[in-house]
Amino acid sequence: MTAVLYDAPGPRARRRNLLLGVVGVALVLAVAAFVIYRFAVTGQFDPDVWQWILYKNIQLLLADALLNTLRAFAVAAVLALVFGAVFAAGRLSDHRWLSGPATAVVEFFRAVPLLVLIFILYFGVSRGLGINVSAFTALVLGLMLYNGSVLAEIFRAGVVSLPRGQSEAAYALGMRKTQVMTNILLPQALRAMLPTIVSQLVVVLKDTALGFLILYPELLYQARFLGSQVQLGSPILPVAMVVAVIYITMCLLLAQLANYLERRSRGRHGGPDTDTVDQERAKLTGLAVAPGVSQGV
Amino acid sequence: MTVLLDNLGLYGSAFVGTVELFLVAAVGSIVGGLLLAAMRVSPVPILRAFGAGYVNVVRNTPLTLVFFFFAFAYPRLEIFDLSFFARACVALIIYTSAFVCEVVRSGVNTVPVGQAEASRALGFTFGQTLGSIILPQALRSVVPPLTSVEIALLKNTTIAAGFAVFEAGGIYQNLSERGYNVLVGLLWVALGFLILVIPLTLLQRNLEQRWRVAR
Q1: ∠A282-A262-B205 over CA atoms, to 5°?
Q2: Whole-prediction pTM value?
Q3: What ipTM score was computed for the predicted complex, to two decimals?
Q4: Fewer CB atoms inside 10 A, N or C side of chain A?
Q5: CB distance A113–B145 less than 8 Å?
Q6: Nearest chain A Cα to B205, which residue?
Q7: Closest by alpha carbon to A227, among A44, A68, A70, A72?
Q8: What confidence category does residue A286 fall into, taking pLDDT thresholds of 50, 70 and 90?
Q9: CB-based burial of residue A7 (10 Å sphere; 0-12 exposed, 13-18 middle, 19+ buried)?
Q10: Å between A96 CA and nearest CA of chain B
Q11: Sign of CA dihedral B135, B198, A113, A83
Q12: For chain A, how are helix, strand and coil distributed in percent, rounded to 5?
């Protein structure tokens, strides 16, 4: 599509584009150079603030923090998938007394900010009710409630996007409601929604960083700790850069997986109507209908 | 109820803080997102590459990390002495722009190819094609998802509270200092956010219904 917005450039347009390109690059480079200059002036590239990276203990500390992040992610992801499946089934139920509450729960947890949820679980429940809730539990439960609700919507949208003929044919074959759901609709819906599900897992991974705010010892927490060590030269910027690289790499890898799944599902014929799937996906992730994996905010 | 009524002033000023932060960041992110989207569809390859790179990196960065940088690391660079509110705005704008850019770009993709081809046939330049033909039509499919991105932005303002900007998410600290029940206090915060988010969600669903393009 983008190539349709302009003609193949002629000599004048090529000159103009070159000029724009040079100006754009100059601007970006200027900003980057300024930032790097500030880094250098304030001594962020001095060898002694990078010395910590060689210390065995600190490497182990960071590895441990990374493990904590991944543990929170793994537990939260599994719980969120289960929560999502249960509440999607609830919302799709024919019984009002089941679908009503399920809808209310899903809408509620999607509307409340995740951080407020985590604070309610951590500060609210522990100080208000006197029940001891660890930072890990609060973080994982918060992630489960929020992302599980989003996943419930994704699962439901996947089922809704299937052609009616699928369930009609299954009923005509004499299958029961549960059989139609588990044998016919769910497998197809899962396959259609797999890229979106993986994209949502990227959101889970990103949001484990919120654990920092309730002092769960994950990557950012340790970064803050190391950054405030005066004997290491208070290397908050170098540590933050290393941690940023770790986070971005992990998320990019997961996002790449989602992209790959998306391309694969696009290349395959048959299965649910890709347009409907796109539209349903678009409604959920807040992105208009377009190829390329859309990702939650 | 007493927790709310006794601290009405606290809640009031905190939610005003939330709304202020939201409005500034919303306008900033829409402007930034439009600029990035223009770069991503422009005829200049290097700008396209920059736009794509920015979006890919920022979308895969936790917002907490962006805030972390602006809260703790930015002052070390001694560039400008920004207030915490300003830094929170910048962090939110940097992050949300990437998502706005994707919304706008995918909206551009929903306009039929014939529209752009016709405008080229009439001799319109890239700027004219985008500004007069494509974007006005793309608006219909951009606004509903844009609303969801801005709703997410509204919810993300709470992270600023974790890094100590005075707004709605920060109420719990004040309450626990004053000796009130934190759980009840936080539930009122959640309710406040529901009141802010639900009208926006309804607006978004309404727009989605009304502006659905039949193609």
Answers
A1: 5
A2: 0.85
A3: 0.83
A4: N
A5: no
A6: A283
A7: A44
A8: very low
A9: middle
A10: 22
A11: negative
A12: 80, 0, 20
